[in-house]
Design brief:
The chain has about 375 residues and is an alpha/beta fold. It contains 16 helices and 15 strands. Helix 1 crosses helix 16 and helix 7 crosses helix 11. InterPro entries: Glyco_trans_1 (IPR001296), Glyco_trans_4-like_N (IPR028098), Glycosyltransferase_grp1 (IPR050194).
Length: about 375
C-alpha cells in the first residue's frame, strides 16, 4: 500500500503523536508498504518522504505546547496528493481545518481515510474546545472511513466531541528496539546510571501535570516517616519550566536527587533499565502511557504511575502499580509504594512479571497487524 500519515504538527520533535506515527511508519515500511508524511512545518524530520505543507505557530492546549498550522497551500496539497497516489490517508485527530482538514477536502475518492484520536482532555476548556473543533470539521469528518482511538479515554473524547465511535488500538512501542538498546548499552552503562543503593527514576517534562513535584512531595513525606531504605537515590530527567523550582525543592531533602536534564533517545533505555522503581506521577491529560511501556521494555524493576484514566488503561487496572492523584493523599500513597517496591522483593518481582506480560499487547508488530486490518477495511469501504 501507499500510505500517508497526515499530521498538523511538526516531525521535528519527539512528542507522543510524533512517536506514534514514526514508530508505526517504520514498521509498515519494514513490511513493504510505501510510507510518506504530510505534516506541518518540519525542517529536521527523522523520516524520508516528509512533505512540509504549512507554516505553524506554537500554542498551549490541553496542558501541552504544540504547533498548529496557520497557512497551507491548497495547490501544494493537491499536487502532493496527486503525486503520492495514496491508497490510505491516516489522519491524526483531532485535526485542524487549515491543514489536515484541507487534505481531507481534497482527497481523491479512491483513497481510504483512517483517523486516529490521541487526546485526553485536561479541563472543561479543552473539552469544549474539542466540541467546537468537531463542529468546524463536521463536513470533512464525513470523508473519514474508519476511526481508531489509542485508548478508551481517547475513544470517549472522539465520541463526545466528534460524535463518532472508534475501535481502540494501542499506541505502538518498538519493544525489540528497546530490548536491543538496553543490551547495546551494556551492564556497565546501566550500572553507571544506577550507582550505589536503590534507584528511583522519573523521566518527563517539568510541567505541573507530569508530576515531578508530586514525586518530590512523596520523597519529603517518606523521609519524615523514615520508610525509605538506606542508600536510596533519585534521578529526575527532563526539562521544562518547573525545573529550577524542583531543583530548589530537592535541595531541602536528605535523599540525593540528580537532575541530568534532557536525556536523548539513545540513553533513555539504559536510564530506565537502571530503575528499581520508575515513577510517572502524571495527574491527567494522558490518553495513553507510552513512557510506561518504554520503562517496562527497558527492564525497569517496577513501574509506578499516577492513577489517571490513560495510565490506568495502559497498566490494565493494576492497582498495585497505580497511586492516587488526590492532592490530600498522593504524597503518602506514592511514598509507601516506592518504599514497598524497594524493600518487598516478592511483591516487586510479581509486579515485574505482570508488567512484562503487557509488552506483547503494545509491541509495534502487534499494533501494525491491527492497523493493517483497519486500512484494508477503509479501502473496502471506498470500493463499495
Amino acid at each position: 500500500m501507499r500510505i500517508a500519515f497526515v499530521f498538523d504538527d511538526t516531525l521535528d520533535v519527539h512528542d507522543g503523536v510524533q512517536q506514534h506515527i514514526v514508530t508505526l511508519g517504520r514498521e509498515l515500511a519494514r513490511r513493504g508498504h510505501h510510507v510518506e508524511y504530510l505534516v506541518g512545518e518540519s525542517e529536521h524530520s527523522p523520516m524520508p518522504d516528509t512533505h512540509s505543507l504549512s507554516k505553524n505557530v506554537m500554542v498551549s492546549f490541553n496542558g501541552n505546547r504544540m504547533r498548529v498550522p496557520v497557512a497551507s497551500s491548497r495547490a501544494q496539497i493537491r499536487r502532493t496528493l496527486h503525486e503520492g497516489n495514496y491508497d490510505i490517508l491516516h489522519v491524526q485527530a483531532p485535526y485542524s481545518p487549515l491543514l489536515a482538514g484541507r487534505v481531507l477536502a481534497l482527497a481523491p475518492q479512491t483513497a481510504g481515510v483512517v483517523a486516529t484520536y490521541h487526546i485526553a482532555p485536561t479541563s472543561m476548556a479543552a473539552y469544549y474546545g474539542g466540541k467546537a473543533l468537531g463542529m468546524i470539521n463536521q463536513r470533512t469528518h464525513r470523508r473519514i472511513d474508519e476511526v481508531v482511538a489509542v485508548s478508551p479515554v481517547a475513544a470517549s473524547y472522539a465520541r463526545h466531541t466528534a460524535h463518532v465511535e472508534s475501535r481502540v488500538i494501542a499506541n505502538p512501542v518498538d519493544v525489540q528496539a528497546y530490548v536491543a538498546a538496553r543490551a547495546q548499552a551494556g551492564a556497565a552503562c546501566i550500572a553507571q546510571f544506577h550507582g550505589e543503593g536503590p534507584h528511583v527514576v522519573f523521566v518527563g517534562r517539568f510541567v505541573s501535570r507530569k508530576g515531578a513535584g508530586i514525586l518530590l512531595e512523596a520523597l519529603d513525606w517518606g523521609e519524615r516517616q523514615g520508610i525509605f531504605p538506606p542508600g536510596m537515590h533519585v534521578t529526575l530527567a527532563g526539562a521544562g519550566p518547573l525545573l529550577e523550582e524542583c531543583r530548589a525543592t530537592a535541595a531541602r531533602l536528605r535523599t540525593p536527587v540528580a537532575f541530568p536534564g534532557f536525556v536523548n533517545e539513545r540513553d533513555k533505555p539504559a536510564l530506565l533499565a537502571s530503575a528499581d522503581a520508575a515513577v510517572f506521577p502524571s495527574t491527567g491529560g494522558e490518553s495513553f502511557g507510552i513512557v510506561l511501556v518504554e520503562a517496562i521494555a527497558a527492564g525497569a524493576r517496577v513501574v509506578l504511575a499516577g492513577d489517571n484514566p490513560g495510565y490506568r488503561s495502559t497498566l490494565r487496572d493494576d492497582d498495585d502499580a497505580l497511586f492516587t492523584i488526590d492532592p490530600q493523599r498522593r504524597a503518602g500513597e506514592l511514598a509507601r509504594s516506592i518504599a514497598r517496591a524497594l524493600t518487598d522483593a516478592p511483591w516487586a518481582a510479581s509486579m515485574h512479571e505482570r508488567q512484562a506480560e503487557l509488552l506483547a499487547r503494545y509491541d509495534v508488530r502487534t499494533v501494525a497487524d491491527e492497523v493493517e486490518a483497519v486500512y484494508a477495511q477503509a479501502i473496502a469501504d471506498r470500493r463499495q
